[in-house]
Amino acid sequence: MTDKSTTYTHKYWLALLRVPGVGCKTFLNILKHSSPEQIFSEKHQALSALGLRSASIDAIKNPAWEIVDQDLRWLEKPDNQALLLSDSNYPAQLKEIQDPPPILFVRGNTELLSQPQISIVGSRNPSSLGIQTATDFAKALVGNGFTITSGLALGIDAASHEGALQAQGYTIAVAGTGLDRVYPARHKQLATQIAATGAIISELPPGTVAKASNFPRRNRIISGLCMGLLVVEAAKQSGSLISARLALEQNREVFAIPGSIHNPLARGCNALIREGAKLVETSQDILEELGQYFQASTEPEHQIQQSTLDLNQQKLLNLVRFSPTSIDTLVGETGDSVENIASVLLVLELQGYIASVAGGGYTRIK
Fold it and tell me: How far apart are CA 122 and CA 159, in angstroms?
């Protein structure tokens, strides 16, 4: 929530953000020569010398104060804030990147933005194994003192946020819309849970709807905030690889979970590993690289439990691979009937040892 002492400064920063033709790079260029307060009193010639076009100059000479007033009213609501690039509490990690957002809109805890973070990204249409993997890694990493950052998208993003929340840790969602709306809409409840203990942030002002062009841009914020970025599942051409390459450009550590050469969702991760990303099998692989930032967990990552399976169930489990395994394959290897195999698979799935995948197959989880 803003107070009267900050409203004046915010007013001009918000007004400049609303000027047509003034994107992030133009805004940053203006800040090198002037302040947002000063820019609205500059003469036409001085504005033109900054490279501003006539439409932008006209908008500066006739600011849309009614829209700015709406932004200020949004900031008056509890837990709503806007961090300016000039603010002392603007996250230092993000300020290091080539094009940091001039304004960060925040719902939730702004202090969390300066805490050590791991970003987890991946497919919007992951396998059940991918969802479980993202959830498990998020739980393990928050247990070691990290905040989990992701993009609130379907699939791996959502699983990462939910894993952090389930472990009673902190998570940050970077939105591709204004913070007065949630995209995708089905994540409204998830967004509420994140904002209650963590934070949802965006460089886009209130009222901004979902546009395809906004999401690749927000990826630089996801990678810019973090110490390291983990890709769980990603096709060869995917937004997750954009995030990974941005992370590399920003000198962040990049981690990837390998997968079967036959799995399309593993090809992006495998390609990143070939390009130098660290191959990750457990959270310990990440902690080895970022050890100076984490606190040792008081609990083991995987609690070893005594098996409750009978001999037949254990034998079949041993035949289910960590890549998709069909029932036909299991029938061929055991000589048992489809009915008996299906019955045992159901027990294994209910106990969390395996997960069903598209096409009728199964993959082993543990």
Answer: 10
3-class secondary-structure state, position 120? strand
**172 close to 146: Cβ distance less than 8 angstroms:** no
- Whole-angstrom CA distances from 5 to 8, 36, 86, 186, 226 are 7, 16, 15, 38, 31
87 neighbors 13 (Cβ within 8 angstroms)? no
Structure tokens at 112: 């969390």
Q: Is the pTM higher than 0.85?
A: no
User: What phi, psi does 9 have (nearest 5°)?
Assistant: -65, -45
Expressed in angstroms, the distance from the first to the final Cα of the chain is 46
The string of DSSP codes covering 223-259 is HHH-SEEEE-S--SS-HHHHHHHHHHHTT-EEEE---
Q: Return the SS3 of 295.
A: coil
pLDDT digits (tens, 9 = 90+) for 14-43: 999 999 999 999 999 999 999 999 999 999
Three-state secondary structure string covering 152-221: CCCCHHHHHHHHHHHCCCCEEEECCCCCCCCCCHHHHHHHHHHHHHCEEEECCCCCCCCCCCHHHHHHHH
Which residues are within 8 A (CB) of 335 and not within 5 positions of it... i.e. 6 or more apart?
A: none
pLDDT of residue 262: 83
93: nearest Cα among 149, 25, 137: 149
Residue 1 and residue 79 in contact, taking contact as beta carbons nearer than 8 Å: yes
The percent of residues in the chain predicted with pLDDT above 90, rounded, is 69
Other beta carbons within 10 angstroms of residue 125's beta carbon come to: 13
